[in-house]
Amino acid sequence: MKRYFTVTLPVALLGLALFNLHAETKGDGWQNWFADGSLQGGQIISGKATYKVENGVLTGTTTEGSPNTFLAIGPFKDFELEFEVNVDDALNSGVQVRSHIAKEGDPVPEGAKGKLPAGRLYGPQCEIAINGTAGDFYDEARRGTWWSILTKTEAVRTDAAKAAFKKGEWNHYRIVVKGDHYQSFVNGVAAADFTQPNDPEGYIGFQVHGIKAGTGPYSVRWRNVKFRETK
């Protein structure tokens, strides 16, 4: 059954701390997100893209004139996240980890160029793209650069890492965040491995990137999304 969700910002901010108790959980702690057809207790923030779940597949679709949009779930500390993703060639996407929601009156986040609007999600984002950056982490809406550059771990970005994402196909991601340590693997290839202490807890956010006027709509799809908290 198709389910469509529209959430206004005040409701979203009230609901972000809620966690969906209906996730299918296995004995090893893995939860199968979106298996029940819901948005996993997440809320749509920062933009006006649309999200739906059908047959366990989460699909995010662009809305012209909208900034980057996120389906935010959490917050979480240490975790493992696995999924398969397929993105339209013209669309850039990503998954936020340990990210934060700007609130009215907040100070400017360290590294940001200016004050963020209330409701804007910011922090580390694992990139989904066909241009060779897949699996690297970008500091979304804050420092505006790659964590591989900030942490001097660019050696991880090998030719194999840059070529791991397959255009037009379903691509498997594994993201591991434990303590200050961040890792990602794209189709089994190490794509990022760094440490940084700035974000001990935060939201996971499935991104639909904004698009240029007169283009789209474009979509990004996630399936077989598995999550477990670790210690």
Main features:
mainly beta, Jelly Rolls, 10-stranded antiparallel sheet, 6-stranded antiparallel sheet, 3-keto-alpha-glucoside-1,2-lyase/3-keto-2-hydroxy-glucal hydratase domain-containing protein, signal, AL/BT2_dom, hydrolase activity
Word description of this protein:
With 231 residues, this protein is mainly beta. It has a single domain (3-229), classed as Jelly Rolls, CATH 2.60.120.560. 6% of the residues lie in helices and 42% in strands. It is built from 3 helices and 16 strands. It has helices at residues 9-15, 147-150, 159-162; strands at 3-4, 24-25, 31-33, 43-45, 50-54, 57-61, 69-76, 79-87, 93-101, 121-128, 137-140, 171-178, 181-186, 189-195, 202-208, 219-229. Strands 1, 2, 3, 5, 6, 8, 12, 13, 14 and 16 form a 10-stranded antiparallel β-sheet that branches. The chain is globular, with a radius of gyration of 16 Å. Mean pLDDT is 91; it is low at 1-22. InterPro entries: AL/BT2_dom (IPR010496). Residues 28-228 form the 3-keto-alpha-glucoside-1,2-lyase/3-keto-2-hydroxy-glucal hydratase domain.
CATH level 1 name: Mainly Beta
Rg calculated over all Cα atoms: 16 Å
Largest sheet data? 10 strands, antiparallel
Overall morphology: globular
Total helix count?
Answer: 3
| CATH-defined superfamily | Exo-inulinase, domain 1
CATH topology: Jelly Rolls
Task: Classify the helix fraction into a percent range.
Answer: under 10%
Order of helices and strands: EHEEEEEEEEEEHHEEEEE
Our count of domains comes out at 1
The secondary structure category is: mainly beta
Strand content: 35-45%
Going by CATH, the architecture would be: Sandwich
Annotation, overall tally of beta strands: 16
Low-confidence stretches: 1-22
* Overall average pLDDT: 91
Distance N terminus to C terminus? 36 Å
Organism: Prosthecobacter vanneervenii
InterPro entries: AL/BT2_dom
Signal peptide: 1-23
Protein name: 3-keto-alpha-glucoside-1,2-lyase/3-keto-2-hydroxy-glucal hydratase domain-containing protein
